[in-house]
Write a structure and sequence with these properties.
With 291 residues, this protein is an alpha/beta fold. It is 35% helix and 23% strand. InterPro entries: AAA+_ATPase, ABC_transporter-like_ATP-bd, ABC_transporter-like_CS, ABC_transporter_ATP-binding, P-loop_NTPase.
Length: 291
């Protein structure tokens, strides 16, 4: 049996808020991730994604529960170079160039041989001599990803890596990630963006209020909860500038009526519908935050 990349059981973490109340950030989370999986942690603000990621990386100690990363403690796995992270904020020195940054981290890891390769993998070779402060937000995140790849880790954990990027930069970032994941690395990422889970992750772990409310193949999440909506493509000749020809739609409704179908709506099934359904079951109040 292979050792799981991550095996966490009964994880709990609470914080004391400034008003003296206790916030349960992570509440009894069990999670096993096998080597080679690509997993999205999806959830609204405050769901507990970052706290979970911090515990997986050994940055925060759980109040209760156990975590093993490749059969050892998270801190040991990080020290051994088996796990790397791309965090939301900070971590880069503005005065360094891209290449100097990668060289400095490679020296720390004793892997100067990896500099050229990781620059190339992350599409940064052409920007090697650009100062960090002159790089766009997307380029800086790619640089962080390059740094994470220096020790050639088995597992990369990314905490909302594309926050603040425009659509183009996000796509570029994920293209880089996708190319790397194809080489067999295990990837776990936290995101607010449903589209990112949908496009990139084979498995989606949906968190809300510190708990895992759903954990399944991303396609199953959609099928189970968003799949109630019927969609189809009408023939081109009935679609005009104002939408679908009303008479044609009426014929469709008449044809479906004998099948017991009513209130037919033409709208795309989406992971968003699944997400809203799942978090609604868990807590109505947080739906606004998820949008
Ligand atoms: N250091 C801390 N002190 C007090 N409360 C905290 C601390 N860290 C997290 N929390 C609280 O724990 C809960 C979970 O936060 P966490 O950052 O893990 O959620 P998240 O899903 O990553 O949210 P976001 O998407 O907004 O980053 C929130 O209510 C947050 O306010």
């Amino acid at each position: 049996m292979t050792t799981p990349a991550i095996h966490a059981s009964g994880l709990r973490k609470s914080f004391r808020a400034t008003d003296g109340t206790t916030v349960v950030a992570v509440d009894d989370v069990d999670l096993t991730i096998e080597p080679g999986e690509i997993v999205a942690f999806l959830g609204p603000n405050g769901a507990g994604k970052t706290t979970t990621v911090d515990m997986l990386l050994g940055l925060t100690a759980p109040d209760a529960g156990t975590i093993e990363v490749y059969g050892t403690s998270p801190a040991e796995a990080v020290r051994a170079g088996r796990v790397s992270a791309v965090m939301q904020t900070g971590g880069l020195l503005n005065d360094f160039t891209v290449a100097e940054t990668v060289r400095a981290i490679a020296a720390l890891h004793g892997r100067p041989d990896r500099v050229g390769l990781v620059l190339e993998r992350t599409g940064l070779t052409g920007l090697a001599n650009r100062r960090v402060e002159a790089c766009s937000g997307g380029e800086q995140q790619r640089l962080k990803f390059a740094l994470a790849l220096v020790p050639d880790p088995d597992l990369v954990i990314l905490d909302e890596p594309t926050t603040g990027m425009d659509v183009g930069a996000r796509q570029e970032f994920w293209q880089t990630m996708r190319a790397d994941a194809a080489l067999g690395r295990t990837i776990v990422f936290a995101t607010h963006y449903l589209a990112e889970a949908d496009e990139f992750a084979e498995r989606t772990v949906l968190m809300n209020r510190g708990r895992i409310v759903h954990d399944a193949a991303t396609s199953d999440v959609r099928a189970a909860y968003g799949g109630r909506t019927l969609t189809f493509r009408p023939p081109a000749e009935v679609v005009g500038a104002d939408g679908i020809d009303a008479a044609w739609l009426a014929r469709v409704r008449d044809a479906l009526a004998p099948l017991g179908i009513s209130d037919l709506e033409v709208s795309a099934a989406s992971l968003e519908a699944a997400f809203l359904a799942l978090t609604q079951e868990n807590d109505d109040d947080l739906i606004g935050a998820a949008r």
